[in-house]
Amino acid sequence: MEEISKESKAEAPPQVVQVNASEEPVRAEWGNHCEFFVSSLGLAVGLGNIWRFPYVCYSNGGGTFLFPYLIMLLVVGLPLFFMEMVLGQYAGLSAPKIYARLAPGLKGMGYGMITIPTVVNFYYTVIMAYAFYFLFMGFTSTLPWGVCSNDYNSPNCFSFIESDECSNTTLFFNHTCMSAKDFCEDHGFVPKEGNNTHCFTLLNGTAIATKDIEVRVSSAEEFWYKNVLEVEVNFTKDGTIIDTDKSSWSKWGNVNWKIAGCLLLCWTIVCLSLIKGVQSYGKVAYFTTLFPYVVLTILLIYAATLPGFTNGIEFYLVPDWSKLGTLAIWKEAATQIFYSLGVSQGCQLVLSSYNGFKTNCHRDALLIGLCNSLTSIYAGLVVFGVVGFIAFKKEADVADVIDTGPSLAFIVYPEAVSGMVAAPFFSFMFFLMLCLLGISTVCGTWEPLIASIMDEFPSLRKKRVLVMVVTCFMAFLAGLPICFESGVLLFQLMDFRTSNSVVLMSFIQLITISWFYGLDRIFVHIEEMGMKLPRLLKGYWHACWAIITPFVIAFLTIQAWVDAVPDSYLGYEYPPAVQFLGWFFELLALAIVLVYGIIVLIKNIRKGDEIAFLKPGPMMLPTPAWGPRPDSGL
Questions:
Q1: d(CA 330, CA 398)
Q2: How many CB atoms lie within 10 A of CB 215?
Q3: 3-state DSSP call for residue 560?
Q4: Each residue of 423-472: pLDDT tens digit?
Q5: Res 5: pLDDT
Q6: Integer Cα distance of 618 and 103 in angstroms
Q7: CA–CA separation, 113 and 117 (whole Å)
């Protein structure tokens, strides 16, 4: 091991000049290592584990998806995760400061990285607002999304709770238990005495299921679109579509004040959680990160007693090996890893910067990455067990009721909860879990912005309360457009496009560190922080950082652009100007890197300094200010 250390140090370039410790402001640290671990885990484990992973797993072969998912965790997720922890812990700085010193020509990459979570939080907190609204509306004996007796419900509204109250000669239609005979005759069919599930044709007596004669819209779906979002939609047999005569990019509608109020509440909670820095956030993280596991376990135990549970689990885990050879499954696996771990956004980097210099972040990276993936799989058991129950209640296939994104969290799951015993209790537990997951993620992704502001303007360290209040209020205003009646269109655009930015920043970060800064230096820094890597593991990280991970990311980026389709939502294809806005969201972080690089380039030209971007030079080599944090003792 000593020989490896000596070889690494011999190969490393000469030690750069370091900034005097007195020139660096004292950086806050976690109260203890557990605070860092649960905070970092809370950042990685978020709403995506509940609504995105289960659906992606199902749509890509069920249990088959777990194989490429874990492979991508090993060759894409963990290498980036570990690299960011090393940089943050070694320098004790935020992303902009690190890259300003490590590669001056790419100082803009630090700004670009923190731009991604900043923009994401503008709409991510709106998801929290939805969860808080459901939480508040659930404080009643009868959940409002479980019945069709609300003012906004249409004649086609269907509630399996109210349907269970109908006799075997009636069926639920137009908010009441209607005679099966009258229903069939009104629709031109022949009834059969004692049969309330089918009508029969006049000519040959072919049986037609009553649920297929009229469009059935679940009470939870109408609650989501008409009460929560207040967006105008049409419910058809082919699915839900936007009513573009009333809701579109040119018809934005009025402010949805109840969601706007919940959004203000969300940012108030985030502000209070971070107002004292890592000292307050670390304490909050214990509850916001660990309690959702308690809720998931309670829901899983109860769901296991429900009819249809095993069908849902079988649907989730039974593999379809034919999909393993398709490119799509590997692409989706890598995308899910990026989506979940939160790499290349400056988040894990800044959280690790509050670690002690000798913390074993290698162990932490492996454990947190593994816990995140296991949480996704565990959450999938809960989600599909419950979805199996609702499929049983609706006498439908699991494939007909499963959905992705907000629809899974705010339509499918609430509908299932409404049919449970002690429905208000399970509703409270589920939506409290969503709120806590949202808080832990937003806090973890908002701190990089605050840390960057503090690092750029050290005088503001004593005015953290003011910085938190101002930034959170500005973020509330930025998310307010999504709280309009047609705001969900902007939400969907931002959600899809910003996720692609992470892939681009990951590629640039890897190339900068691996090919310009040099992996020999990185391994020296790892040893300086007291971590001894086995020879085999060191070779593995070297291969991933230098070749495997950059190649995978480049391939996925190109493939995503080749397969790109116009942005749309519920059958409404966005106009060209909005498509351009989508590209703006996707390329904003990259544009910041390029613009700032051009500014640095122009400054160097005016000074007469050497210019080099594609080879080691003053633009891509560390400045004299780069080095270990002041408290490192080096």
A1: 24
A2: 16
A3: helix
A4: 999 999 999 999 999 998 898 889 889 988 988 888 888 899 999 999 99
A5: 40
A6: 8
A7: 8
Query: β-strand 239-242 against 217-218: which pairing, if any?
Result: unpaired
Asked if residues 46 and 440 have their Cβ atoms less than 8 Å apart, the reply is yes
* Stretch 372-379: mean pLDDT: 90
Which one-letter DSSP state was computed for residue 188? T
Contact status, residue 198 vs residue 186, Cβ threshold 8 Å: no
Q: Give the three-state DSSP class for 235.
A: strand
- pLDDT-derived band at 481 (thresholds 50, 70, 90) equals very high
DSSP characters over 479-501: HGGGGBTTHHHHHHHHHHHHHHH
Q: HEC string of 310-369? A: HHHHHHHHCCCHHHCCCHHHHHHHHHHHHHHHCCCCCHHHHHHCCCCCCCCHHHHHHHHH
Quote the pTM value.
0.88
Q: Of how many residues is the chain composed?
A: 634
Among the residue ranges 42-46, 389-393, 401-405, the one predicted with the least confidence is: 401-405
What is the residue-wise DSSP string for 11-76?
HSPPPPP---GGGSPPPP--SSHHHHHHHHHHHHSSHHHHHTHHHHHHHTTTHHHHHHHHHHIIII
Which tokens is 189 given? 């069919």
Residue 591 CB coordination number (10 Å)? 14
283, 30 Cβ separation under 8 angstroms: no
The yes-or-no verdict on residue 131 having pLDDT over 80 is yes
Alpha carbon distance 116, 453 (integer Å): 15
- Sign of the CA dihedral running 342, 266, 96, 111: positive
DSSP per residue, 505-539: HHHHHHHIIIIIIIHHHHHHHHHHTT----HHHHH
> Cα 108 to chain center, whole Å?
24
Report whether 292 contacts 436 (CB < 8 A): yes
Report helix, strand or coil for 600.
Answer: helix
Number of C-beta neighbours around residue 254 at 10 A = 10
Query: What is the residue-averaged pLDDT of the chain?
Result: 86
